[in-house]
Amino acid sequence: MAVHQSHQPLPVSDLQRVLWCHRGSTGHVNQVWPRLYLGDAFTARDKAALREMGITHVLNAASGKFQINTGPEYYRDLNIDYYGIEAFDDQHFDLSAYFYPAAHFIKAGLQSSKDM
C-alpha cells in the first residue's frame, strides 16, 4: 500500500490574485488557478503559445490518433512532460478511472520547478 502525502491546497490569496488580475480569455486557453491553464486543441498544438505561457506539463484528455494526436514526441523540443488519456466525448465513457493519475500528474506539474 502506498502512503500519500496529504493535499495542501494553495492559499485563497493565490486564487484571488488570479481572479483580480484576470488577463481575459484568448478564446482558446484560460488560467484557472495559479500556474494551471485549461486549453483546447488549438492551444495544445500551438507551440509558440505554450512556450510564451511557460507551460511545462500537458495533460491531454483527448489523446489518440483520431483525436488530439500530440504526445510526448510532439513536445520534445519544448521539454514538456506529457500525460495522455484516450477519452471519448461520450456519456458512457467512464473517465473516473483517470482522475487519480491525472490529479497526480497535475500536482507534480504544479510542484515542479522545471523551466522551459
From TrEMBL:
Task: Tell me the enzyme class.
Answer: hydrolase
According to the UniProt entry, what is the EC number of this protein? Answer: 3.1.3.16, 3.1.3.48
Tell me which InterPro entries the record gives.
Answer: Atypical_DUSP_subfamA, Prot-tyrosine_phosphatase-like
Gene3D superfamilies per record: Protein tyrosine phosphatase superfamily
Superkingdom is Eukaryota
Annotated Gene Ontology MF terms?
Answer: MAP kinase phosphatase activity; protein serine/threonine phosphatase activity; protein tyrosine phosphatase activity; protein tyrosine/serine/threonine phosphatase activity
Q: Which UniProt keywords apply?
A: Hydrolase, Protein phosphatase
Among the entry's GO cellular component annotations, what is one?
cytoplasm
- Reply yes or no: does the keyword Hydrolase apply: yes
Q: Give an example GO biological process.
A: negative regulation of MAPK cascade
| Claim: Hydrolase is one of the keywords in the record | yes
Q: Which SUPFAM superfamilies match?
A: (Phosphotyrosine protein) phosphatases II
Catalysed reaction(s) here are:
O-phospho-L-tyrosyl-[protein] + H2O = L-tyrosyl-[protein] + phosphate; O-phospho-L-seryl-[protein] + H2O = L-seryl-[protein] + phosphate; O-phospho-L-threonyl-[protein] + H2O = L-threonyl-[protein] + phosphate
Q: What functional role does this protein have? A: Dual specificity phosphatase able to dephosphorylate phosphotyrosine, phosphoserine and phosphothreonine residues, with a preference for phosphotyrosine as a substrate.
Family to which this protein belongs: Belongs to the protein-tyrosine phosphatase family. Non-receptor class dual specificity subfamily.
Question: What is the name of this protein?
Answer: Dual specificity protein phosphatase
Question: Per the UniProt entry, what species is this protein from, by scientific name?
Answer: Xenopus laevis (African clawed frog)
The encoding gene: LOC108703376
